[in-house]
Amino acid sequence: MNNIVGVCFVGQDVTGQKVVMDKYVLIQGDYKAIVHSPNLLIPPIFASDENTCCLEWNTAMEKLTGWSRGEVIGKMLAGEVFGSCCRLKGPDALTKFMIALHNAIGGIDTDKLPFSFFDRDGKNVQTLLTANKRVNMEGDIIGVFCFLQIASSELQQALKVQRQQEKQCVARMKELAYICQEIKNPLSGIHFTNSLLESTDLTEDQQQFLETSAACEKQILKIIRDIDLERIENGSLELEKAEFLLGSVINAVVSQAMLLLRERNLQLLRDIPEEIKTLAVYGDQARIQQVLADFLLNMVRYAPSSAGWVEIHVCPTLKQIPDGHILVHTEFKIVCPGEGLPPELVQDMFHGSRWVTQEGLGLSMCRKILKLMNGEVRYIRESERCYFLVVLEVPMPQKAGKGAAD
């Protein structure tokens, strides 16, 4: 009959929604309390939507620029706020500011960008701009959040030095990449010429010279191909292993020091057993050459020319291990009279996490490469001389090892 006969009540539990809303209101309250606090510790802060229209302009920004929040809210940050209200020095400054804003909207933050403008009274204000993306609860980018840091003269100078160093670092990396690429071409010519020489009639001495040249060529290729120092630092560098004559390594190492020896008028004394020439071992020939050559060259570089000598002493001994293989335990001693290497060079080699000299970096890397090959190096100073003591164990090829054992 369409008459009202009673009332029906339907209840819905909204406790969860109320808790979420309370938290949201609390967060919003905290945000506004922090951003708009007159406390001097709160930096100048402003924000925009995804179209770079100003949504936020805190108390510190009002004091810094002279423009109130109501005068800038809703205006375009690039062009109206900074450009018209707060004049910029030129179009380049506006372009850099726009790039920073749009990078942040694209997810790329900007940190401490030098940013200067004129306040309401025409005073030049120098700051550092940090621009970060703003995201909603779902993680979508909805604008930009920026704050300014007043740049002291000391901070500006430090940042200028940092930028110069970064530019120098990039320039050095480009130079290194260029050298690594271009050096391959003449090396290919050397390799081809050596291959032609191999097919000609050579004396025994000429054959040895050719082998030494080929070994040095291989060493250069190895260095420029495996130039990732981080892999050396963390011990992940891969070592190539092949059979070679230990005498060939000694010849290649000595050849790399001969020009400097002659230039400094130093005599090279060799205490090397005759059997080294024909002693076959198994390992990374190029890396062993690199390590020994670096130690020898540094000793030659700092040997006193008045004394007139550097000595290389090699002492191999065979050692059989339980699995039947034969190891060649070799001690290389590279000696010079006098004080030898400067203390900072030794510090770079053994202790420096940040190297001071290029030679120290090379020695440090060689020490780490040697460690990868289960070798070690010590630098020892005595009263009238100093020396590198390099200890390395490499296996003999299996067939050679059996013959030696027999």
Concise account of the structure shown:
The chain is an alpha+beta fold.
Task: Describe the SSE topology.
Layout (H helix, E strand, L loop, with lengths): L14 H21 L9 E5 L4 E4 L1 H7 L3 H4 L18 H15 L4 E9 L5 E12 L5 E10 L2 H30 L1 H15 L5 H22 L3 H5 L8 E4 H18 L3 E5 L8 E4 L1 H18 L6 E12 L5 E12 L5 H8 L7 H15 L3 E6 L3 E11 L2 H8 L1
Parallel strand pairs: 7-9
Antiparallel strand pairs: 1-2, 1-5, 3-4, 4-5, 6-8, 9-10, 10-12, 11-12
Tell me about this structure.
GO terms for molecular function: phosphorelay sensor kinase activity; photoreceptor activity. Its EC number is 2.7.13.3. The structure is a single chain. By secondary structure, the chain is an alpha+beta fold. The protein has helices at 15-35, 59-65, 69-72, 91-105, 153-182, 184-198, 204-225, 229-233, 246-263, 285-302, 343-350, 358-372, 398-405; strands at residues 45-49, 54-57, 110-118, 124-135, 141-150, 242-245, 267-271, 280-283, 309-320, 326-337, 376-381, 385-395. It starts with 14 loop residues before the first helix and ends with a helix.
Query: Spans with pLDDT under 50 lasting ≥5 residues?
Result: 400-406
The proportion of residues in beta strands is: 15-25%
Structural class: alpha+beta
Helix content: 40-55%
N-end to C-end Cα span? 119 Å
State Rg.
35 Å
Mean pLDDT: 86
What is the count of β-strands? 12
Domain PAS: 30-82
GO molecular function: phosphorelay sensor kinase activity; photoreceptor activity
Family: Belongs to the phytochrome family.
Protein name: histidine kinase
Task: Give the key terms.
alpha+beta, 5-stranded antiparallel β-sheet, 46% helix, 406 residues, disordered C terminus, 12 strands, 5-stranded mixed β-sheet, 13 helices
